[in-house]
What we know:
This protein is mainly β. It has 2 domains: 125-379, no CATH class; 433-620, no CATH class. The longest helix has 10 residues, at 38-47.
Amino acid sequence: MKAFPLLIEPLESRIAPATFTVTRLGDVTNSSHSTGSLRDAIINANASTDSVNSIVFNVHGDINLAANLPAINLQPGSSLSILGPKTGKSNGIVIDGDNHVIFSILTGAVTLQDISVTHGLAAHPGGSIAKGGGIYINDSSPVQLTDVRVSANHAVGSLVKAEGGGIFISAQSSVTITNSIITGNVARGTGRYNLEPTGYGAQGGGIMCLGTLTLESSVVSNNKALGQNDSANLGLNGGSAKGGGIYASSAASITITGSTISGNQAIGGAGGIGEYYGYVTRGVISPGIGGTAIGGGLAASGTTVVISGSKITGNTAQAGNGGAAIPGASNPFIGGPGYGGPADGGGLSIIGGTLSIQTSSVSGNLAAPGIGFRDGVSKGGGIYAGGALTASQVTVSGDRANYGGGIALYTTGNTILGATISANRARIGGGVQVAGSGSDALKIQNSTIANNFALADGGGIDIAVGASVQIDNDTVAGNTVSAAHGAGGGINAGAFPGSVSIISTIIAGNKASVGADLFSSSNAVVSISFDLIQQNPVPGTFTNNGNNIFGESPQLGALANNGGPTLTMLPKLTSPVVNTGDNPDSLTTDQRGTGFDRTVGTGVGASDGTDIGAVELQTV
């Protein structure tokens, strides 16, 4: 038998984690009596020289803190996993802060899993910003929260603003939150400093992010950002509120996938009582202006936000009311109250930066202005875009604001593709208000704008001064303007817009006193081609590039599920829109997406065979 040499290979390097076990629920601050507590385990993990560490529990129930927990401050290169017991729910271990600081994560890669964090309090007297009522993260290493519930925590500013009622994420931090619930947390601005004219604000009722946040399969619900009221009635302006659910600022980056942001509120503070309205004169204190409210669900400033497969629903941005006016010794005249504050983005608000949202719904959100001598203004019941918006296969429905009930666009570079914008309400721009001044304010394709309502102008779409808009292969139907002299039930191209191009679009069944389907002022230049406009457009400067159909019904069905991720309006086989349109952007699918070709059949006349409108009949 032939002998073979013995082959010896080195084993792979494996490091057994240092494990610290919590054996008691009680919390004792005296180190000689704290053995087996969570407090003791964190202290030991901080001191550990092992690179991999874990804290586990052989108990389950509530841990009621007697004092702030020690900050997690690991040795260089170390990691720590705090793993609650697998009970099938995140409250196997409930860490009740009892108005103390719960988790402060400063160094090391940290994972929190299967735990609940509740009743924490970040309250910093003497002018410090209150940050992270439940979890404060200022860590350059990655942090992971999985199956965690963060609820009923508070960040309360004293003499300054509050940030992150539930969670605060610093600029250097990268955090992933998976299958977790962030609910019922509050960021509240309080106090005043000397004679500052404005109350203190609050940012991020649920989460405040300055770094990188990835939110996956999670719920952010019923959180509040509350600006300071001038309860002392010293004529202060109300404090601002930004991001009832989430607020992101600076160079932050947020990615949200398969998640729900619902029932959150950004509420601006009320102005204080004063003796005169509008300004301070002769030493008299004027009533305060109501605080601004931005982004009931999410607000972002100078940030990159990407949202997919998510629901943004039932959120509110409510601005503060102006302070009341009363007679005073130096001014017996009772003037009007202070001005009401403005509100932007009941569901989502972005100022600067970019927002990309796809295969998601934005519904039932409200942007409400404050009331005062002059009421505030609200914009974007569903979405306010002061940064570039890209929306694809999105439903925006049932949202409300003064301007842009569904979407308000106040910058350029916006694109909407394959969306349904329906049943939204506003004073101007029931479905969409386009107010960004520039050559590319909006390009909207393969979309349905239906059954929206405006009091004054633009039931479906309102195009304001300086905005240039391209409307291709869309359906604008069933929208209403109710005012006696209201204009543009479907589309209103008001005074001095930029160029407006409408190609292969159905504009039908809309209602308004002037220009039921399409209104253009004498200052506007609107070009139309391959369109079906049921009611002839009213005065203005139209460039008819031919191949339009006037005065005929498109024979549309009701807004319904005809396939794809959004509701659409399907024409009958006998409709005049069949095979009489154009496809100027070479779209490959209709609004419904994959499986629904954009062009089917042979063209009639100059048509390339595309059906007019957002939906293509797949058999002809």
